[in-house]
Specification:
- The protein has a single domain, classed as hpI Integrase, Chain A (Orthogonal Bundle), CATH 1.10.443.
- Helix 2 runs antiparallel to helix 3, helix 2 packs across helix 6 and helix 3 runs antiparallel to helix 5.
- Strands 1-2-3 form a 3-stranded antiparallel beta sheet, with no helix packed on it.
- The relative contact order is 0.14.
- By secondary structure, the protein is mainly alpha-helical.
Length: 204
C-alpha cells in the first residue's frame, strides 16, 4: 500500500497560525474612518506633510489605486464646481465624483503651496509626478508612525472607501460605479462586512 502524502508544515497551515500572530500580520484589509484620521495625522508630520495628508484623503474619499492617485492632474479637478473626473486603471469605468469641502480646502492649499508648476496634483520636490513606489512608501511610513500593530499599505485606502460606503448603507450598485468595478462581485465584499446587515436580527 503506498504511503499517504502528508502536507509539509508551513506558515500557511492551521498549526502555524495557531502559534499566534506574526509580526506585520494584518487582521483586515481596510481601516476605519478614525484610523484614516490617525494615519493622516501621522503623515502630516512628514516634510511634505500637507501633500501627503491630502494624497491620503483623496485616495480614501475616492477609492483610488496608487496608480490612479499619482496620475491625477489638475485638469481632472473642477474646484469651482466641486467635481473630480476619475480615470480608472485596469479597465475600470470612469466617473465624476463630487468633491467635499474638506477636500476642496486641502487641494486649494496644495495648489497655492506647490512651488514648481506641474499638471500633476502630487509632485516630488523636483516637480516630477510622485511615483507609485514613492506614494506607497509614504503610506507605509505613516502607518508605522501612527503606531498601527499591522502593516498598512496604500491599497487599504481603496478598501477603506468601499467599506465606509457599505457601512453607511449606500446602494451596492452605486458603490460599484463609484469604485469603477467592472463586476459587482468585486463590490459585495464590502457589503458582506457591513455590520448594519444584521442590526434588526434580534430585538429585546
Amino acid at each position: 500500500m503506498p504511503a499517504k502524502y502528508v502536507r509539509p508544515y508551513s506558515k500557511g497551515t492551521v498549526a502555524a497560525r495557531a502559534r499566534g500572530p506574526v509580526k506585520g500580520y494584518r487582521p483586515r484589509e481596510y481601516l476605519t474612518e478614525r484610523e484614516i484620521e490617525r494615519l493622516m495625522k501621522a503623515a502630516g508630520k512628514n516634510r511634505w506633510g500637507h501633500r501627503d495628508t491630502t494624497a491620503i484623503l483623496i485616495a480614501y474619499r475616492h477609492g483610488l489605486r496608487a496608480s490612479e492617485l499619482v496620475a491625477l492632474r489638475w485638469d481632472d479637478i473642477e474646484l469651482a464646481t466641486g467635481r473630480l473626473h476619475v480615470r480608472r486603471a485596469k479597465g475600470g469605468a470612469t466617473s465624476v465624483h463630487p468633491i467635499g469641502a474638506k477636500e476642496s480646502r486641502a487641494l486649494r492649499r496644495l495648489q497655492r503651496e506647490t512651488k514648481t508648476p506641474s499638471r500633476y496634483v502630487f509632485v516630488s520636490e523636483r516637480g516630477a509626478p510622485l511615483s507609485v513606489a514613492g506614494y506607497q512608501r509614504m503610506v507605509a511610513r505613516a502607518g508605522e508612525s501612527a503606531g498601527f500593530g499591522f502593516l498598512v499599505h496604500s491599497h487599504m485606502l481603496r478598501h477603506s472607501c468601499g467599506y465606509k460606503l457599505a457601512n453607511d448603507g449606500q446602494d451596492t450598485r452605486a458603490i460599484q460605479h463609484y469604485l469603477g468595478h467592472r463586476s459587482i462581485a468585486s463590490t459585495v465584499r464590502y457589503t458582506a462586512l457591513a455590520p448594519g446587515r444584521f442590526k434588526h436580527f434580534w430585538k429585546d
